[in-house]
Here is the input.
Amino acid sequence: MTGAIETRTSRSPDSDYTILLPGTWATIPLDDEAAFERRVGNIVKRQVGTGDRQARQRRQMRDELVKTVIDAKAGGADSFALSLELLPGVPFPAAMLTSVDGWAIDGITVTSVEERLAASFPAFETLPLGGGHVARRAESGRKVIGSTVTPTLRMDYRVPRPDGESILKITISAPMIEQSELFVALFDAMVDSIIWN
Here is the structure.
């Protein structure tokens, strides 16, 4: 089961869902290490620049992104996307990982998807979105990057799949975000854009 993360309405033929994303996002391949390292290198050069003065920043950013991609692949991610410009004029990086998983608990008697989400993911908030109920957890924090401490936002979503037997896990990490409420609303809208093929 694979998915497509794109900014257009076109879909890949082998995908069973599409997520529409605002701004400029880059998809990083997970199936070929050499390909994702090249892709990450190109993204970093585009974002940081190629001057000698940025060499340390480029290396640090590249190493962090490569580690993130390796961790995503090891964690079972099906797709990985990275924002190059989260919103127009806001060049903060955000990463989105998706994977398919089973429900956290089975064998519970519930009468609705909302109840099943609440029982399966008690640490999450259950939200009614346009496409149905989803479970969401938002965590704000601080991260040390080099000698700088920056705010961070991590969003975890559990979206019931149409088969009723599995869920789509979506994780969005966004460092350097001060106004987290605005971005929680943005990420909710992105998750709400899922189209099942």
Observations:
- The first helix runs from residue 33 to 48.
- The chain has a mean pLDDT of 80.
- Residues 2-196 form one domain.
